[in-house]
Amino acid sequence: MIIGLTGGIATGKSTVSKMIMERGIPVVDADIIARQVVEPGTNGFKQIVQAFGEIVLTEEHTLDRKQLGKLIFNDTNKRKVLNNILHPEIRMEMRRQSDEYLKAGHKTVVLDIPLLIESNLKYMADKILLVYVPQEIQIERLMKRDQSTKEEAMSRINSQMPIDEKKEVADDIIFNDGAIAETEEQLDNILKRWKVE
């Protein structure tokens, strides 16, 4: 079984991801893969340099993320070009890693994809597990975590799909606004219900 794990900013998805790994279930993390597919020599790296030129490289000939970020920040077309390069590479690598875990005898693999629902990647998973907290807790956590103002936190949250809309799509939800022990208990109950081995 492939489980898609998702959430919103500051909902605690990484905490749940860690709990899943502690239970011996392999997790394939989209954020880690997004960095791997642009390492020097990779297909993603070559395509980015081809599309944007050497301006996106550091002196050490690695990808200059800040520079690339500046280029695409206010330019929808350039952002689209970058996404068209990255997304297929990330999906391919996620599939490769999850296939490897399944071949090695694991019965379940979790794909940790922050934008699983927004990017229409539901087809990659048999079940979708959402880590949820109400928006006011998201704001509180973000302000604390990033030392940001309420306005900055709100603007980051509003740049994502509303967490309440994601509830409609999820097969199950972990309400992560209580104690850690409560989150663990919910996770264990869901894994049991889904007969995860």
Which CATH-level-2 architecture of the largest domain? Answer: 3-Layer(aba) Sandwich
How far is the N terminus from the C terminus? 9 Å
CATH superfamily of the largest domain: P-loop containing nucleotide triphosphate hydrolases
Radius of gyration: 18 Å
How many structural domains in the coordinates?
A: 2
What's the assembly state of these chains? single chain
Low-pLDDT residue spans: none
The CATH class of the largest domain: Alpha Beta
Total DSSP helices: 9
Proportion of beta-strand residues = 5-15%
Mean pLDDT value: 95
The global form is globular
List how many beta strands DSSP finds. Answer: 5
Class inferred from helices and paired strands: alpha/beta
Q: What is the chain-wise order of helices and strands?
A: EHEHHHHEEHHHEH
As for the CATH topology of the largest domain, it is Rossmann fold
| Proportion of residues in helical segments | 40-55%
User: What about the largest sheet?
Assistant: 5 strands, parallel
Major sheet strand order: 2-3-1-4-5
Properties at a glance:
five-stranded parallel sheet; Rossmann fold; 2 domains; 197 residues
Write up what this structure looks like.
With 197 residues, the protein is an alpha/beta fold. It has 2 domains: 1-26 and 108-197, P-loop containing nucleotide triphosphate hydrolases (Rossmann fold), CATH 3.40.50.300; 32-105, no CATH class. It contains 9 helices and 5 strands, in the order βαβααααββαααβα. The protein has a 5-stranded parallel beta sheet with strand order 2-3-1-4-5, with helices on both faces. It is globular, with a radius of gyration of 18 Å. The protein starts with a strand and ends with a helix. The model has no long low-confidence stretch (mean pLDDT 95).
